Amino acid sequence: MTQTQYYVPLNVSYEVDVWGRLRRGVQAARAESEASEAELRTVQLSLTADGATYYFGIRGLDAELAVLDSTLLARRQSLALTNARFTAGVDNEIAVRRAETELATVEASLFEAQRQRKGLEAALATVTGQTASAFTLAPRRGPLNAPQVPASVPAALLTTRPDLLQAERLLAATDSRLDAARLARLPTLLLNGFIGPQAADLRDLPRISDNYTYYLGGGISIPVFNGGRLRANQQIAQARYDAQAAEYRQRALVAFKEVETALADVQQTAAQLAAQQRALTAARQAGRLTLERYRRGLADYFQVVDADRITLNAARQRVQTQANQLRYTVQLVRALGGNWE
Q: Comparing 7 with 31, which gets the higher pLDDT?
């Protein structure tokens, strides 16, 4: 007599992680996720540093425009004085034309600085997610004061640098992948089975609640015929680990170089500013003395022009160096991963 039995099995299979291969795979996935988070922080830091660089560039141009505005006023007064002396027959037309030339030269420099400011303003609008036409930054003619930077910073700060953290997490992930590839060559312990309702009539299956069939078993899988493929996978994982280790060492060297360069730039710029301040003070004093001698008829206008030009160049170089000092400070913060504290 033939009897037909129907059942609906629920198959279950479980691999016992005897050697830790699956655990290493989970660790690799977690490290890769952390590397992705570090990559996001790298992009955020880069955008923030770019925005700060553009902002301080604009403020540097504001300071330079203030110098040019005051120089433009002095050039107009000088032109008026020269015209008056020419009308009185004290000076010649050459002095008038030189005064007009110097005035036009300052005006051209003023327009060029305004053009550069517009370009930096548009760049700042881009990194802040706004259109250039809808973004404006009001001028500020205040002093450019850079923060006090320590003479040295601890190397441990580099551990917070996101691109270096990303490289370290990727190295940890490839190390876990390498271990998983090595452990894949070892025997695997598998547990499997099934459970489900059983009935003689197919229509009774949904109503059966106490007649179940089940099976539980296990076995060991030994990769005999896949040994070559698994060995090749391990060699590939080893090559990836070596490449990632080299990438991590290279990023670490670049990070140290960037920090040392930025620190040197900040420190040297401070010394440069002190020298430029002395030069500017002396140039202004020489300019006042030369102008006084010109008014008394003891010097010609060419000496006044040279003195004024030296003073203007010294003033512009000073504010440009101050802007560079702020830019170098931003580069230092960026090289340290966001802060030096």
A: 31
Give the integer Cα–Cα distance in Å for 316 and 325: 14
85 domain-assigned = yes
More confident residue, 58 or 7: 58
**CA nearest to 269, candidates 335, 331, 321, 196:** 321
CA dihedral over 93, 98, 104, 106, signed as positive or negative: negative
53 vs 329: CA distance, rounded Å? 9
Number of domains comprising the chain: 1
pTM summary value: 0.79
Ranges of beta strands (E only) in 68-180 are: none
Sign of CA dihedral 284, 285, 287, 291: positive
Look at residues 268, 275, 266 and name the one whose alpha carbon lies nearest to residue 326: 266
Tell me the one-letter amino acid at 29.
A
Three-state secondary structure call for residue 80: helix
DSSP codes, 60-73: HHHHHHHHHHHHHH
Helix (H) and strand (E) counts for the chain? 5, 4
Q: Which strand (E) or helix (H) includes residue 309?
A: helix 301-335
Q: Does residue 340 belong to any structural domain of this protein?
A: no
Look up the CATH number of the domain holding residue 187. Answer: 1.20.1600.10
Compute the residue count for the chain.
341
Q: Distance (Å, rounded) from C-alpha 209 to C-alpha 159?
A: 60
Q: Does 32 reside within a domain?
A: yes
Domain membership of residue 102 as a residue range: 6-335
Residues 246-288: tens digit of each pLDDT? 999 999 999 989 888 988 898 899 899 999 999 999 999 999 9
User: For residues 107 and 72, what is the distance between their CA atoms, to the nearest angstrom?
Assistant: 7
Q: What's the whole-number mean pLDDT along residues 104-112?
A: 94
Half-sphere exposure at residue 307, Cβ-oriented, CA atoms within 13 angstroms: 22
- What number of CA atoms fall less than 13 Å from residue 170's CA on the CB side? 22
Reply yes or no on whether the pLDDT at 7 is more than 60: no
341, part of any domain: no
